[in-house]
Write a structure and sequence with these properties.
The protein is α+β, with helices and mostly antiparallel strands. It folds into 3 domains: 149 residues; 150 residues, L,D-transpeptidase catalytic domain-like, CATH 2.40.440.10; 57 residues. It is built from 12 helices and 16 strands. The strands form 3 sheets. It has an 8-stranded mixed barrel. A 4-stranded antiparallel β-sheet has the order 6-9-7-8. A two-stranded antiparallel ribbon has the order 15-16. It is elongated and about 90 Å long. It starts with a helix and ends in a 9-residue tail after the last strand.
Length: 412
């Protein structure tokens, strides 16, 4: 079974070492009487239904639990009941954790800058929840509280049950992956959050319990994939520079400028040295530079012609990836929107900026497309979480289950 480290130790202490309902410490699951029998039966029934939430019953020691149950019912080996109790506690905790946090999520996120801040809280919630279980009815209530009850999750859960009955294992597997990711994102209970799904090439902004904003996005080409990550949006930049990533600068732009230096002006580009000072391009001996020795950086000046458009959203990650406006609006009319170098281009960036800044954004200033502006950073009052995920099935805003192409061929 998967290792649960901190949570297992904490819950074992809470459930086994601490007296339950004023009783002396001792077996809780494996004891004589209807209460313990009811706890075992409810857990085993819940594990039998694990597949309905995209989980695998075999991850939770079902054979050991069934054997221990039969031994307790026969009255045999009472001296071992406390040891068997720990099996039930570990299985109950592991199952509850996967219902709450999703299973296998971490391996489908390349960078997670959010979870570490909540691990302690999550462990505390699970420990206290399971420690408060005294009867089978309590256990059933606790488990049911760990999963979302919103429309989208119910649609996915009902659909998964149908695909399992029909024996459509491929679709059931894809839907299971989506449900586990959905539970992980939702369990944080953030007041506001942004979720970008790469296969559907869309962004959803949630405020409270509601979908507040929905838009198309352009994601990375299959050869220049948008990474999967969880992080924070800390602010926006109005009229940003596009500081061209070095790989693009030396591999794509340098060959062009060596052939036609005048393109630099046509593309509204500037050359800067390693101290951020502008360099007169007419004094650069372009032919003498290669990808190995080019000493400058290239940036595009602010304006509506800029590749980042008039607003960029700062997100904290190890990747040179942002969410931003774009000067190529026609890309949003395409059914397959995978044209970028990895950044996320937004169909309605000003609407998102206005939502994140809680209507403190001067939209007329941005829509005027002024030239020769200086980039203006604006911090959010409170960072907003951003989840960039890869799920090939989801629920459309209208409530219909939708299947998306596995454009990066990741298999989920």
């Amino acid at each position: 079974m998967k290792k649960r480290g901190y949570w297992i130790g904490l819950v074992l202490f809470c459930v086994i070492a601490v007296p339950v309902s004023g009783q002396q410490a001792g077996p809780v699951w494996c004891a004589e009487g209807e209460r313990a029998r009811g706890l075992r039966e409810v857990l085993m029934r819940a594990l039998d239904s694990a597949g309905l939430d995209g989980l695998n019953k075999r991850d939770y020691l079902p054979d050991l639990l069934e054997w221990a149950d039969s031994m307790v019912k026969s009255g045999k080996s009472a001296n071992q009941w406390p040891d068997w109790d720990r099996w039930y506690t570990e299985a109950g905790l592991a199952f509850g954790r996967d219902l709450y946090l999703g299973s296998g999520v971490r391996k489908r996120i390349s960078f997670d800058g959010i979870s570490g801040q909540f691990d302690g809280r999550d462990g505390q919630d699970l420990a206290e929840g399971l420690a408060g279980v005294n009867t089978g009815a309590d256990l059933q209530e606790w488990l049911s509280m760990l999963i979302p009850v919103d429309r989208d999750y119910i649609i996915m859960r009902d659909s998964l049950a149908m695909f399992r009955v029909l024996g459509q294992s491929g679709r059931a597997g894809r839907l299971s992956s989506a449900m586990n990711m959905y539970r992980w994102v939702q369990h944080f209970r953030f007041e506001r959050m942004i979720v970008v799904n790469i296969p559907s090439a869309d962004l959803r902004y949630y405020a409270g319990d509601s979908l507040s904003l929905y838009m198309k996005v352009v994601a990375g080409q299959p050869s220049k994939r948008t990474p999967r990550f969880a992080t924070w949006c800390t602010g926006v930049v109005l009229y940003p520079y596009w500081n061209v990533p070095r790989k693009i600068a030396i591999r794509e732009l340098l060959p062009l400028f060596k052939k036609t230096p005048d393109l630099l002006e046509t593309m509204e580009m500037e050359v800067v040295d390693n101290r951020g000072r502008k360099v007169d391009p007419s004094g650069i001996r372009w032919a003498s530079y290669t990808v190995a020795n080019f000493p400058y950086e290239i940036r595009q000046t602010p304006g509506c012609f800029n590749a980042l458009g008039v607003i960029k959203f700062n997100i904290v990650s190890p990747y040179d990836v942002y969410m931003h406006d774009t000067n190529l609006k026609k890309a949003f009319t395409s059914a397959s929107r995978y044209f970028s170098h990895g950044c996320i281009r937004l169909e309605r960036p000003i609407d998102l900026g206005r939502s994140l800044l809680e209507n403190r954004l001067d939209t007329s200033y941005l829509l005027s497309c002024f030239r020769d502006q200086k980039p203006a950073p604006v911090a959010l009052g409170k960072p907003v979480p951003v989840f960039v995920v890869y799920q090939t099935v989801g629920v459309e805003p209208g409530g219909k289950l939708a299947w998306y192409k596995d454009v990066y061929q990741l298999g989920n």
